[in-house]
């Protein structure tokens, strides 16, 4: 009788474990589908007009001050192009050989790289800024940042800022917490926050948005044991309310997907970026940075 009860209990526990695993996988797949679907917002994002920028400057009472030409490049995936019908992923992908050529070009022309966290001090004049230079950023915290990007950063001694989504750590195709800790210990990597689950901040309540912004910072700081100073808006969406929340959460700066290179104290909390897909090979990056190729007349 006891053996029979033990067997029933064992089978029941096993069924619960299997059911829990299946439900967890289904939940992850559902969230990732929603995550990919909402990338349509990124592709259709329109840069704010001058009127919106003016309103935000007035809202923060932030003087524009000196304009600095600080190119911030926005990457997502660095992997071979796949012909699987996922056009959004393809549009966000840079093949590894092109990425390496970009880094090689930076190294050959002695172009320095900075972290996003360095920008506030540059804008205020408290840190020297060498021109031309560049800031490399990677959104979402994909696995290829550790397996492909990080080795190349070390090979060419280039810095980069990676923005991670807390709840996606450990999921398939995303960084693990162990990898993130290793990355954060490197002098070549800055870790920034990208909310808890890639939340569409303008589509949720202000209270929930504030929680996403604040809690993602707190959890990363607890995990890594160091300050997390910068933030990236999911889908590039922001407004005066979300900017205020980011500022009040004690971030020193935030990046947007608004295209541009001219930064100032006025847009410190929505720094402009350039899509990596528009750069192609290394010579195109040189053109954007305003650098003449070696050997050219």
UniProtKB/TrEMBL annotation:
<dbReference type="InterPro" id="IPR002509">
    <property type="entry name" value="NODB_dom"/>
</dbReference>
<dbReference type="InterPro" id="IPR011330">
    <property type="entry name" value="Glyco_hydro/deAcase_b/a-brl"/>
</dbReference>
<dbReference type="GO" id="GO:0005975">
    <property type="term" value="P:carbohydrate metabolic process"/>
</dbReference>
<dbReference type="Pfam" id="PF01522">
    <property type="entry name" value="Polysacc_deac_1"/>
</dbReference>
<protein>
    <recommendedName>
        <fullName>NodB homology domain-containing protein</fullName>
    </recommendedName>
</protein>
<feature type="domain" description="NodB homology">
    <location>
        <begin position="132"/>
        <end position="297"/>
    </location>
</feature>
<dbReference type="GO" id="GO:0016810">
    <property type="term" value="F:hydrolase activity, acting on carbon-nitrogen (but not peptide) bonds"/>
</dbReference>
<dbReference type="InterPro" id="IPR051398">
    <property type="entry name" value="Polysacch_Deacetylase"/>
</dbReference>
<keyword id="KW-0732">Signal</keyword>
């Amino acid at each position: 009788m006891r053996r029979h009860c033990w067997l029933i209990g064992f089978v029941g526990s096993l069924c619960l474990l299997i059911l829990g695993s299946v439900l967890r996988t289904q939940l992850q797949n559902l969230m990732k589908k929603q995550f990919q679907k909402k990338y349509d917002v990124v592709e259709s994002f329109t840069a704010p007009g001058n009127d919106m920028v003016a309103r935000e400057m007035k809202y923060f009472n932030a003087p524009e001050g000196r304009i600095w030409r600080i190119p911030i490049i926005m990457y997502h995936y660095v992997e071979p192009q796949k012909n699987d019908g996922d056009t959004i992923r393809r549009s966000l992908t840079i093949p590894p050989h092109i990425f390496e050529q970009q880094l090689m070009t930076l190294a050959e022309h002695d172009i320095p790289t900075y972290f996003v966290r360095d920008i506030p001090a540059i804008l205020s004049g408290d840190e020297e800024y060498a021109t031309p230079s560049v800031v490399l950023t990677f959104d979402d915290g994909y696995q290829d940042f550790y397996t492909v990007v990080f080795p190349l950063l070390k090979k060419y001694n280039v810095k980069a800022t990676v923005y991670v989504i807390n709840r996606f750590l450990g999921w398939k195709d995303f960084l693990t917490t162990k990898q993130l800790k290793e990355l954060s210990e490197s002098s070549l990597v800055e870790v920034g926050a990208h909310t808890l689950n890639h939340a569409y901040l303008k589509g949720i309540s202000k209270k929930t948005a504030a929680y996403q912004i604040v809690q993602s910072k707190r959890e990363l700081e607890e995990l890594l044991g160091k300050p997390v100073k910068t933030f990236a808006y999911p889908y590039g969406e922001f407004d005066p309310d979300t900017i205020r929340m980011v500022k009040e959460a004690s971030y020193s700066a935030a990046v947007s997907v608004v295209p541009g290179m001219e930064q100032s104290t006025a847009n410190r909390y929505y720094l402009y970026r350039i899509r990596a897909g528009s750069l192609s090979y290394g010579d195109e990056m040189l053109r954007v940075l305003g650098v003449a190729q070696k050997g050219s007349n």
